[in-house]
Write a structure and sequence with these properties.
By secondary structure, the chain is of the alpha+beta class. It has two domains: 214 residues, PmbA/TldD superfamily (PmbA/TldD fold, 2-Layer Sandwich), CATH 3.30.2290.10; 234 residues, no CATH class. It is built from nine helices and 23 strands.
């Protein structure tokens, strides 16, 4: 769509932006571009999908409600002033922030866009053949490679001029195993705001471990049902923080009265040892960025501090209404989607326990590993999350490996039942999050190991 340099785009956007008086109304304009490569391999298929570049522009202003116009033809910028209303006395309805500037391209060690597709395929085929042929019980290996690069250029009538270029890479390995009538699998994902250097971590010994993890599932037993002490790994902790808890903190849900956390601000919602944050400026995480799609600098949002709910997750409008401080959570999937308050990197902060100590203190309990599913219920506050596997804990030791385990109940009861969090460094895992079934944005979630005194579990 656009063959201009980013400096020319800045100049064109600034000219349009200056025609909207900030004292009367807020205005911003965003250029969005995506390049992507998807490779899927299994024993019967090898699919390659290339998106060389899709791009567009979206401009908006606030006159009591948001008015937006999206364009795919850069030569039509003049229509923005014709289509968007000019108003007076609406400027204070969107809180004003000091304009700032940024021009940042995240550089990787090996730029994926400079690696030929054939070289990528050679590496991925080697991994496929190694895992597929590692053991005759591996019935099918599935690999998924996802490579994206987004460019966002943002200008508003507060004086902000911002540009960010962010590469993201994710690689999935699913060795599906079969013995007799029993079929199961474990999975492995490597990811980050990184380049093709991520593949340096996938040595043959690492691939052996990935294959072995799936093969071990053939020994897994059905988990018990009932209430037990439970330790969840960082992936499961992140699913609780994001799906079960975080969606109820999105401030648009609060404003619509569709959040069970609406009346909980500055009240106890979790154990005193819990600190839960959403931080979009962490390094090398799928959910990270320098500024959101409203030009707000990425910061750290402490959602829960010592068990007390401190903040919601805001975009500009909800922050203006609720007198909140936005930390960079106004996000849109693309120029063709609207902005919502969205999570970025949501996680439990570490505490002071040793994991071995957490296990040793349990006479009979469960450890859950590898988050596999999580349900959001921002209205009712119910919790339902499922791990891919787990372990029995008997007399302070991990014993029998278990198949999928589902944790159920009310999320606030689970959070207030937390009695230990490990001191391991925060570990996050990435993915995408939708608003309902649309508007997908990259996110990460995680934490350290978290122990609950009692949680209802059942086979997953």
């Amino acid at each position: 769509m656009i063959d201009q340099s980013y400096s020319q785009i800045f100049a064109s956007f600034e000219e349009v932006s200056n025609s909207f008086n900030r004292n009367n109304q807020y205005f911003d304009i965003l250029y969005d571009s995506l390049s992507a490569l998807y490779i899927n391999i299994d024993p019967s298929t090898e699919d390659i999908s290339v998106i060389s570049k899709t791009s567009g522009v979206v401009a908006r202003t606030f006159d009591g409600t948001w008015k937006e116009i999206a364009l795919t033809d850069f030569s039509n910028l003049s229509t923005i002033e014709e289509k968007l209303p000019k108003v007076v006395n609406k400027g204070e309805e969107i809180a004003e922030f000091k304009g700032w500037t940024l021009n940042k391209e995240l550089k990787t060690k090996i730029d994926p866009q400079e690696v030929p597709i054939e070289e990528k395929l050679k590496k991925i085929r080697h991994i496929f053949n190694f895992v597929q042929n590692y053991d005759k019980r591996i019935a099918m290996c599935q690999l998924k490679y996802l490579e994206t690069q987004i460019t966002r250029i943002f200008v508003n009538n507060e004086g902000s001029q911002l540009r960010q270029v962010i590469p993201r890479l994710r690689f999935f390995i699913f060795p599906i195993v079969k013995e007799g009538i029993k079929v199961d699998f474990d999975h492995f994902i490597i990811e980050g705001e990184a380049g093709f250097e991520l593949f340096d971590e996938l040595s043959d010994s690492k691939l052996e471990q990935i294959a072995t993890n799936s093969l071990e599932m053939l020994k897994a037993k059905k988990p018990p049902a009932g209430k037990f002490p439970v330790i969840v790994d960082p992936g499961m902790a992140g699913t609780i923080a994001h799906e079960s808890f975080g969606h109820g903190l999105e401030a648009d849900q609060v404003l619509r009265g569709r959040s069970y956390l609406k009346e909980k601000l500055n009240k106890k919602v979790a154990s005193e040892i819990c600190v839960i944050c959403d931080t979009p400026n962490l390094e090398n995480q799928i959910g990270s960025y320098y500024f959101d799609d409203e030009g707000i600098k990425a910061g750290k949002n402490i959602l829960v501090e010592n068990g007390i709910l401190k903040n919601f997750i805001y975009d500009r409008r909800s922050a203006s209404v609720l007198n909140g401080a936005p930390q960079g959570n106004g996000r849109r999937e693309s120029y063709a989607h609207v902005i919502h308050p969205r999570m970025s990197n949501t996680y439990f902060e570490p505490a002071d326990y040793d994991l071995e100590e957490m296990i040793a203190e349990i006479k009979e309990g469960i450890m859950c590993n590898h988050s596999y599913f999580g349900m959001e219920d921002p209205i009712g506050g119910a919790l339902q999350v499922t791990s891919k596997k787990g372990y029995l804990i008997e007399n302070g030791e991990k014993t029998q490996i278990l198949r999928a385990i589902t944790l159920s109940g009310l999320v606030l009861e689970v959070l207030q039942n937390i009695d230990a969090i490990s001191k391991e460094p925060t570990e996050l895992h990435g993915g995408t999050c939708g608003k309902g079934n649309a508007d997908n944005v990259p996110v990460s979630d995680g934490g350290s190991y978290v122990r609950c005194k009692e949680v209802l579990i059942s086979p997953g």
